[in-house]
Design goal:
Elements: H1 2-30, H2 48-71, H3 83-114, H4 122-126
Membrane topology: Multi-pass membrane protein
Main location: membrane
EC number: 1.7.5.1
Length: about 130
């Protein structure tokens, strides 16, 4: 069990980061003009405002929560905010931000996969 814990939380994040960076670098070098966002915002805005706002508010909440939660020393808040209260606030605010991000992400993914303005025929996707 100790090996799995060490692998998944100590080693695997570095493997995933290296694969991401090296893969992005190789894709940029060898397929530079195949990168495209394929944005369809101009063609179909239905559902875009709600999904995009939910996703971005959730991501910002997660970022701010991690920033303050990990970079704020205990001595700065322990006089007026007990640790248990801070942990409960982090759980509720983080949970709400995560749910907002998840709902917005699912709505954006649904729009991307099933909207006629977003979906391209298969031969155009391959090229």
């Amino acid at each position: 069990m100790q090996f799995l814990n060490m692998f998944f939380f100590d080693i695997y994040p570095y493997i995933a980061g290296a694969v991401f960076l090296i893969g992005s670098w190789l894709r940029y070098d060898y397929g530079q003009y195949t990168w495209r966002a394929a944005s369809s915002q101009m063609l179909d805005r239905k559902g875009m405002n709600l999904a995009s706002n939910l996703f971005h508010i959730g991501i910002l909440g997660i970022f701010v929560g991690h920033f303050f939660g990990m970079l704020t020393p205990h001595w700065m808040y322990e006089a007026w905010l007990p640790i248990e209260v801070k942990q409960k606030m982090a759980m509720f605010a983080g949970g709400a931000s995560g749910v907002l991000c998840l709902i917005g992400g699912v709505l954006l993914l649904k729009r991307r996969l099933f909207s006629h303005a977003c979906v391209q025929p298969l031969p155009e996707r391959i090229s």
